6,7-dimethyl-8-ribityllumazine synthase
Amino acid sequence: MATENKNLSVYDKSTIPNAKTLRFGIVVSEWNDTITEGLYNGAIDALMDCGALAENIIRWNVPGSFELTFGCKKMLATQKIDAVIAIGSVIRGETSHFDYVCSGVTQGIKDLNIAYDVPVIFCVLTDDNLQQSLDRSGGKHGNKGTEAAIAAIKMATLG
Ligand SMILES: Nc1c(NC[C@H](O)[C@H](O)[C@H](O)CO)[nH]c(=O)[nH]c1=O
Ligand SMILES: CC(=O)[C@@H](O)COP(=O)(O)O
């Protein structure tokens, strides 16, 4: 089902474990910060709606989505956390750089999920234009940050 047929912000709280004992890391790309701040707000709101405590959420910023892998790796290596959310917004430009950034961050985050025993949630928008990004960071399709927060709680309590 494509995003256009679902709202990314919809979740059934009764099906989500309480997050009050969980610690979260959030690594946020500064590129397209209007979008990434919207994603971050969606994630924070959902985490706290599900019981997470502000003092148990650590935020680090990185320059761009390509640096999300290193930022999450360093957070995993130095912080006691139950899940990490990687937040980025990649918007297609004139060249093929979009493809390399998207594939690099995708593979990097996938590799972290293999190398570490703490889930890293992929909250990276990879859009053809700004409107698609706006629609998915608190617009008509909801907020992928909300979706990522719910995924983080579910994965942190898996098993
Ligand atoms: N064009 C976008 C970028 N590009 C920057 C890279 O992510 C990286 O920071 C740079 O290549 C230095 O290593 N990043 C985004 O997050 N979004 C874009 O649209
Ligand atoms: C995703 C990118 O790196 C892209 O926004 C850069 O734009 P351009 O391909 O026009 O250099």
In short: The pocket of LW54GNZ2 (ligand 1) is lined by residues 29, 31-32, 63-67, 88-91, 101 (CB under 6 Å). The radius of gyration is 15 Å. DSSP finds five helices and six strands in the chain. The mean pLDDT is 97.
